[in-house]
Write a structure and sequence with these properties.
Helix content: 40-55%
Strand content: 15-25%
CATH class of the largest domain: Alpha Beta
Distance between the termini: 9 Å
Number of strands: 15
Number of domains: 2
Largest sheet: 7 strands, parallel
Number of helices: 13
Length: 380
């Protein structure tokens, strides 16, 4: 059945579905990478991207958006938020959009309010992180503004859904689990991952607990294991991580590679993907590694256990346990057959459950479902 959406301004039928995707910035990060991939994969008539943060932040992923996707920058500042929200609402109204889909707390807040002012038919939010930094007034905004105006609130993992419901007080009937997705390469970067180079991708922030990973490398070196670690990412914890490298005496074994846009090239260099996080949503870097067929040794943070099956698709260890992380890495470095088995199983899992095409299809179905329930006269 062909779905026809009528123009919000009531000028007659139009076979278009216009979706505006709202996010703060397109800096290099997991949620931002998923956002770009989703925008590129969405099967809608028109996709518009709105950035409400620092659009000039470098490096960023803006150039990786499809060329036909419009990008608008409406920076919303707290001291001028009333004016800025009104500006954003005018942009949404002029765009004649059917759906506004916002990502992360501040864009969810400003985007849902602006979309309601603009009379947008369907307002969807996505929750990518635990957001344990929230204070009481943030939680009040979650319930009384975002949840009041949004039609559906998508969570990338069961853990985040529980946080929104139990900690923030978001009504359970608004929440739905929609896992992240990633681009699955048609061919593996290379047939076999050889050598002893392992790697990790993520911002250099406390949630990733890179000092624990560095400690695990030190333990491996003390055991006589030949291993090199490369960490791709940048962040405010760089100096502390560099201090950990010096403290553990593994300057020759650990490389901080900084921000990189060619993550697939780095994945192709590595024998194992490693994560030491203590807090996660559903890590896109893990999905990318799984899609590349890399065996993974990761901590049981956030949505990780729902993403990777321990002992079937990789190895999961407790957060904060460098001995266990070192044991898992050593096991896979010493067993090429097991590494290959885990890598193939992980790739198959992503193809089955976490492809970007699957995510884009699910989002479109949600958009259509909300439009049908909220504005049946707009759908025929």
């Amino acid at each position: 059945m062909q779905i026809l959406f009528r123009c919000p301004r009531g000028i007659g039928p139009s076979p278009t579905l216009v979706v505006v995707q709202v996010i703060g910035e397109l800096r290099i990060g997991g949620a931002e990478r998923m956002f770009v991939d989703l925008c590129n994969a969405l099967d809608v008539d028109k996709t518009i991207v709105v950035l409400t943060g620092d659009s000039d932040l470098q490096p960023n992923l803006r150039s990786e958006l499809r060329r036909d996707i419009e990008v608008h920058c409406v920076r919303v500042r707290r001291r001028t938020w009333v004016r800025d929200v009104w500006t954003l609402s005018r942009l949404l109204r002029d765009a004649g959009c059917d759906v506004v889909h916002t990502h992360m707390f501040w864009p969810n807040l400003y985007g849902s309010l602006s979309a309601r002012l603009a009379g947008v038919s369907a307002i969807i939010t996505s929750e990518h992180g635990r957001n344990e930094w929230k204070r009481r007034w943030h939680k009040w905004l979650e319930v009384n503004v975002i949840s009041r105006y949004a039609d559906a609130r998508l969570c990338v993992s069961q853990d985040i859904l529980r946080m929104r419901k139990d900690v923030d007080g978001v009504p359970e009937d608004m929440l739905r689990i929609v896992p992240n997705g990633t681009v699955v390469p048609s061919l593996l970067p290379r047939a076999e991952h050889q050598g002893t180079v392992i790697g990790s991708v993520g911002r250099l922030v406390s949630a990733k607990d890179y000092p624990m990973m560095i400690r695990a490398v030190s333990i491996l070196v003390s055991r006589g294991v030949n291993v090199k670690l490369e960490i791709v990412g940048e962040g405010e914890e760089r100096e502390a991580i560099e201090a950990s490298i010096r403290k553990e005496g593994v300057e020759s074994e650990v490389t901080l590679a900084g921000s990189q846009t060619n993550v697939s090239d780095w994945l192709a260099r590595w024998r194992i993907f490693v994560s030491s996080s203590v807090r996660e949503g559903q890590p896109v870097a893990l999905l990318e590694a799984m899609a590349a067929g890399l065996p993974c040794v990761v901590t049981a943070a956030g949505g990780v256990p729902d993403t990777l099956a321990d002992g079937v698709e990789g190895i999961i260890v407790p957060p904060g346990d460098p001995e266990a992380l070192a044991d898992g890495i050593q096991q896979l470095l010493g067993d090429a057959e097991l590494s290959g088995t885990y890598g193939r199983a992980a790739r198959e899992r992503v193809i089955r459950d976490f492809s970007i095409e699957s995510l884009a299809s699910t989002c479109r179905q949600i958009y259509t479902s909300v439009l049908r329930s909220k504005a049946p006269d707009l759908v025929s």
